[in-house]
Design goal:
By secondary structure, this protein is an alpha+beta fold. The chain is 27% helix and 22% strand. The strands form 4 sheets. A 4-stranded mixed beta sheet has the order 5-6-2-11. The longest helix has 22 residues, at 82-103.
Length: 271
Protein backbone atom coordinates (compact mmCIF):
# COMPACT_ATOMS: atom_id res chain seq x y z
CA UNK A 1 0.00 0.00 0.00
CA UNK A 2 1.47 3.39 -0.97
CA UNK A 3 2.72 5.36 2.03
CA UNK A 4 0.26 8.19 1.41
CA UNK A 5 -2.78 5.86 1.65
CA UNK A 6 -3.99 5.60 5.25
CA UNK A 7 -6.64 3.37 6.79
CA UNK A 8 -9.87 5.04 7.82
CA UNK A 9 -9.41 3.94 11.42
CA UNK A 10 -6.12 5.78 11.95
CA UNK A 11 -6.42 7.94 15.03
CA UNK A 12 -5.37 11.51 14.37
CA UNK A 13 -3.55 14.07 16.45
CA UNK A 14 -5.77 16.98 17.29
CA UNK A 15 -4.15 20.37 17.18
CA UNK A 16 -5.45 23.89 16.94
CA UNK A 17 -5.21 25.55 13.63
CA UNK A 18 -5.19 25.21 9.91
CA UNK A 19 -5.74 27.68 7.12
CA UNK A 20 -8.12 25.98 4.72
CA UNK A 21 -10.65 28.61 3.78
CA UNK A 22 -12.98 27.30 1.13
CA UNK A 23 -14.11 24.03 -0.46
CA UNK A 24 -16.14 23.86 -3.67
CA UNK A 25 -18.00 20.59 -4.13
CA UNK A 26 -19.44 18.95 -7.21
CA UNK A 27 -20.45 15.31 -7.69
CA UNK A 28 -19.43 13.50 -10.83
CA UNK A 29 -20.54 10.03 -11.83
CA UNK A 30 -19.10 6.99 -13.57
CA UNK A 31 -20.08 8.33 -17.01
CA UNK A 32 -17.51 11.13 -16.63
CA UNK A 33 -14.58 8.69 -16.90
CA UNK A 34 -13.10 8.53 -20.40
CA UNK A 35 -10.81 6.00 -22.05
CA UNK A 36 -8.71 8.23 -24.34
CA UNK A 37 -7.66 7.21 -27.83
CA UNK A 38 -4.30 8.88 -27.22
CA UNK A 39 -2.57 9.98 -24.07
CA UNK A 40 -4.10 13.33 -23.00
CA UNK A 41 -2.22 16.60 -22.77
CA UNK A 42 -2.12 18.08 -19.27
CA UNK A 43 -2.29 21.87 -19.50
CA UNK A 44 -1.62 24.40 -16.76
CA UNK A 45 -4.75 24.96 -14.72
CA UNK A 46 -5.93 21.37 -15.17
CA UNK A 47 -5.91 18.24 -13.04
CA UNK A 48 -6.22 14.75 -14.48
CA UNK A 49 -7.56 11.92 -12.34
CA UNK A 50 -6.89 8.35 -13.49
CA UNK A 51 -8.93 5.35 -12.36
CA UNK A 52 -6.84 2.18 -12.16
CA UNK A 53 -8.05 -1.40 -11.67
CA UNK A 54 -5.59 -3.09 -9.33
CA UNK A 55 -5.85 -6.46 -11.03
CA UNK A 56 -3.36 -8.06 -13.40
CA UNK A 57 -2.34 -11.33 -14.97
CA UNK A 58 0.95 -12.89 -13.92
CA UNK A 59 2.58 -11.60 -17.12
CA UNK A 60 1.41 -8.03 -16.51
CA UNK A 61 2.50 -8.17 -12.88
CA UNK A 62 5.95 -9.34 -13.98
CA UNK A 63 6.14 -6.52 -16.52
CA UNK A 64 5.15 -3.89 -13.95
CA UNK A 65 7.51 -5.33 -11.36
CA UNK A 66 10.32 -4.75 -13.84
CA UNK A 67 9.55 -1.02 -13.77
CA UNK A 68 9.96 -0.69 -10.01
CA UNK A 69 13.01 0.56 -8.15
CA UNK A 70 14.87 -1.82 -5.86
CA UNK A 71 13.24 -0.42 -2.71
CA UNK A 72 9.78 -0.79 -4.24
CA UNK A 73 10.46 -4.43 -5.18
CA UNK A 74 11.76 -5.05 -1.68
CA UNK A 75 8.61 -3.52 -0.22
CA UNK A 76 6.43 -5.63 -2.50
CA UNK A 77 8.23 -8.73 -1.31
CA UNK A 78 7.41 -7.97 2.32
CA UNK A 79 3.64 -8.29 1.86
CA UNK A 80 2.28 -11.39 3.55
CA UNK A 81 -0.77 -11.77 1.32
CA UNK A 82 -0.39 -12.20 -2.41
CA UNK A 83 -3.32 -9.91 -3.27
CA UNK A 84 -1.72 -7.06 -1.30
CA UNK A 85 1.55 -7.56 -3.17
CA UNK A 86 0.05 -7.43 -6.64
CA UNK A 87 -2.16 -4.46 -5.75
CA UNK A 88 0.96 -2.59 -4.67
CA UNK A 89 2.90 -3.65 -7.78
CA UNK A 90 0.08 -2.67 -10.15
CA UNK A 91 -0.49 0.66 -8.41
CA UNK A 92 3.18 1.65 -8.43
CA UNK A 93 3.81 0.31 -11.91
CA UNK A 94 0.80 2.10 -13.40
CA UNK A 95 1.76 5.29 -11.55
CA UNK A 96 5.19 5.12 -13.16
CA UNK A 97 3.70 4.52 -16.62
CA UNK A 98 1.24 7.42 -16.34
CA UNK A 99 3.79 9.89 -14.97
CA UNK A 100 6.32 8.81 -17.60
CA UNK A 101 3.87 9.58 -20.40
CA UNK A 102 3.40 13.14 -19.16
CA UNK A 103 7.13 13.60 -18.63
CA UNK A 104 8.23 11.78 -21.81
CA UNK A 105 10.56 9.63 -19.74
CA UNK A 106 11.13 5.94 -19.16
CA UNK A 107 8.88 4.63 -16.35
CA UNK A 108 11.78 2.81 -14.71
CA UNK A 109 13.92 5.97 -14.67
CA UNK A 110 11.61 7.96 -12.39
CA UNK A 111 12.78 8.67 -8.85
CA UNK A 112 10.63 9.42 -5.82
CA UNK A 113 11.07 10.92 -2.36
CA UNK A 114 8.65 11.72 0.46
CA UNK A 115 7.64 14.79 2.42
CA UNK A 116 7.79 14.62 6.20
CA UNK A 117 4.08 13.74 6.17
CA UNK A 118 4.80 10.71 3.97
CA UNK A 119 3.33 12.23 0.81
CA UNK A 120 5.37 10.99 -2.20
CA UNK A 121 6.96 13.40 -4.66
CA UNK A 122 8.95 13.14 -7.84
CA UNK A 123 12.68 13.48 -7.22
CA UNK A 124 15.73 14.12 -9.37
CA UNK A 125 15.51 16.01 -12.66
CA UNK A 126 11.68 15.74 -12.75
CA UNK A 127 11.20 16.99 -9.18
CA UNK A 128 9.27 20.17 -9.98
CA UNK A 129 7.48 19.17 -13.17
CA UNK A 130 4.38 17.41 -11.82
CA UNK A 131 2.48 17.04 -8.59
CA UNK A 132 0.59 13.82 -7.98
CA UNK A 133 -1.29 11.91 -5.33
CA UNK A 134 -2.52 8.34 -5.05
CA UNK A 135 -5.28 6.59 -3.12
CA UNK A 136 -6.71 3.11 -3.28
CA UNK A 137 -9.49 0.99 -1.83
CA UNK A 138 -9.89 -2.73 -2.50
CA UNK A 139 -9.09 -3.30 -6.20
CA UNK A 140 -9.42 0.33 -7.32
CA UNK A 141 -6.91 3.19 -7.27
CA UNK A 142 -7.12 6.87 -8.15
CA UNK A 143 -4.13 8.89 -9.31
CA UNK A 144 -4.42 12.70 -9.47
CA UNK A 145 -1.84 14.69 -11.46
CA UNK A 146 -1.25 18.44 -11.88
CA UNK A 147 1.30 20.88 -13.30
CA UNK A 148 -0.22 23.74 -11.29
CA UNK A 149 0.30 22.98 -7.63
CA UNK A 150 -0.35 20.22 -5.10
CA UNK A 151 -3.27 17.83 -5.39
CA UNK A 152 -4.89 15.36 -3.03
CA UNK A 153 -7.14 12.41 -3.77
CA UNK A 154 -8.94 9.84 -1.68
CA UNK A 155 -11.26 6.89 -2.36
CA UNK A 156 -13.22 4.52 -0.16
CA UNK A 157 -15.40 1.50 -0.77
CA UNK A 158 -18.81 2.09 0.78
CA UNK A 159 -18.96 -0.67 3.37
CA UNK A 160 -20.06 -1.32 6.95
CA UNK A 161 -17.56 0.08 9.41
CA UNK A 162 -15.77 -2.09 11.94
CA UNK A 163 -15.61 0.97 14.20
CA UNK A 164 -18.49 2.99 15.58
CA UNK A 165 -19.70 5.43 12.93
CA UNK A 166 -20.89 7.92 15.52
CA UNK A 167 -17.61 7.70 17.40
CA UNK A 168 -15.68 8.50 14.21
CA UNK A 169 -18.09 11.33 13.42
CA UNK A 170 -17.75 12.72 16.94
CA UNK A 171 -13.96 12.91 16.61
CA UNK A 172 -13.54 13.92 12.97
CA UNK A 173 -16.70 15.79 11.91
CA UNK A 174 -17.69 19.32 12.86
CA UNK A 175 -20.81 19.90 15.01
CA UNK A 176 -22.72 20.98 11.89
CA UNK A 177 -21.64 17.86 9.99
CA UNK A 178 -22.62 15.62 12.90
CA UNK A 179 -26.04 17.27 12.98
CA UNK A 180 -26.33 16.78 9.22
CA UNK A 181 -25.42 13.09 9.55
CA UNK A 182 -28.09 12.55 12.23
CA UNK A 183 -30.76 13.97 9.91
CA UNK A 184 -29.87 11.63 7.02
CA UNK A 185 -31.96 8.46 6.63
CA UNK A 186 -30.23 5.42 8.08
CA UNK A 187 -29.83 3.66 4.73
CA UNK A 188 -28.06 6.75 3.31
CA UNK A 189 -25.70 7.44 6.21
CA UNK A 190 -22.73 5.34 5.10
CA UNK A 191 -22.46 6.99 1.66
CA UNK A 192 -22.83 10.40 3.32
CA UNK A 193 -20.18 9.56 5.92
CA UNK A 194 -17.71 8.46 3.24
CA UNK A 195 -18.44 11.54 1.10
CA UNK A 196 -17.45 13.74 4.02
CA UNK A 197 -14.47 11.58 4.96
CA UNK A 198 -12.96 11.45 1.46
CA UNK A 199 -13.36 15.20 1.00
CA UNK A 200 -11.49 15.88 4.23
CA UNK A 201 -8.78 13.33 3.38
CA UNK A 202 -8.29 14.80 -0.10
CA UNK A 203 -7.83 18.28 1.39
CA UNK A 204 -5.26 17.30 4.00
CA UNK A 205 -3.35 15.21 1.45
CA UNK A 206 -3.25 18.16 -0.96
CA UNK A 207 -2.29 20.53 1.84
CA UNK A 208 0.41 18.19 3.15
CA UNK A 209 -0.51 18.51 6.83
CA UNK A 210 -1.23 14.80 7.13
CA UNK A 211 -1.73 13.52 10.66
CA UNK A 212 -1.25 17.02 12.07
CA UNK A 213 -4.62 18.14 10.67
CA UNK A 214 -7.73 18.15 12.86
CA UNK A 215 -10.44 16.88 10.55
CA UNK A 216 -13.27 18.29 12.64
CA UNK A 217 -12.00 21.78 11.76
CA UNK A 218 -12.27 21.15 8.01
CA UNK A 219 -15.98 21.53 7.31
CA UNK A 220 -16.96 20.07 3.94
CA UNK A 221 -20.57 18.92 4.31
CA UNK A 222 -21.98 15.51 3.49
CA UNK A 223 -24.46 16.17 0.69
CA UNK A 224 -24.17 14.95 -2.87
CA UNK A 225 -23.69 18.49 -4.12
CA UNK A 226 -23.10 21.69 -2.18
CA UNK A 227 -22.06 25.24 -2.94
CA UNK A 228 -18.62 26.58 -1.90
CA UNK A 229 -18.37 27.03 1.85
CA UNK A 230 -15.99 29.02 4.03
CA UNK A 231 -13.93 27.09 6.59
CA UNK A 232 -12.48 29.23 9.38
CA UNK A 233 -9.47 28.20 11.46
CA UNK A 234 -7.26 29.93 14.01
CA UNK A 235 -4.94 32.35 12.17
CA UNK A 236 -1.71 31.00 13.68
CA UNK A 237 -1.44 28.24 11.09
CA UNK A 238 0.23 29.67 7.98
CA UNK A 239 0.18 29.72 5.05
CA UNK A 240 -3.48 30.29 4.33
CA UNK A 241 -4.85 28.16 1.50
CA UNK A 242 -7.99 27.90 -0.57
CA UNK A 243 -9.02 24.57 -2.06
CA UNK A 244 -11.61 23.30 -4.49
CA UNK A 245 -12.86 19.79 -3.84
CA UNK A 246 -14.80 17.60 -6.24
CA UNK A 247 -16.58 14.46 -5.06
CA UNK A 248 -16.18 11.47 -7.36
CA UNK A 249 -18.04 8.26 -8.09
CA UNK A 250 -15.25 6.23 -9.71
CA UNK A 251 -17.24 2.97 -9.72
CA UNK A 252 -20.40 1.50 -8.26
CA UNK A 253 -20.01 1.13 -4.52
CA UNK A 254 -17.11 3.59 -4.24
CA UNK A 255 -16.89 7.27 -3.39
CA UNK A 256 -13.88 9.55 -3.71
CA UNK A 257 -12.74 13.15 -3.80
CA UNK A 258 -10.01 15.25 -5.36
CA UNK A 259 -8.74 18.52 -3.86
CA UNK A 260 -6.96 21.14 -5.94
CA UNK A 261 -5.77 24.74 -5.50
CA UNK A 262 -8.48 27.33 -6.01
CA UNK A 263 -6.79 28.49 -9.24
CA UNK A 264 -7.57 25.18 -10.94
CA UNK A 265 -10.98 25.10 -12.60
CA UNK A 266 -10.85 21.94 -14.74
CA UNK A 267 -10.65 18.33 -13.61
CA UNK A 268 -10.73 15.58 -16.23
CA UNK A 269 -11.27 11.88 -15.53
CA UNK A 270 -9.61 8.98 -17.36
CA UNK A 271 -9.54 5.23 -17.12
Amino acid sequence: MPAECRDILVRRKRQAGSSLDRAAMAINDTSAWKKPDRFPNLADGQVHVWRIALTATADVEAELTGLLAADERERAGRFVFEEHRWRFVVCRGKLRQILANYLVESPASLRFCCEASGKPLLDGKNANELSFNVAHAADLALIAISRSGPVGVDVEAIRPLTADLWGLAQEHFSPRERSELMQIAEQDRLPAFFRGWTRKEAIIKADGRGLAAALDQIEVGLGEQIEPIAVEFPPDQAPRATWRVWSLEPAAGFVGAVAVPHTIETVEYYC
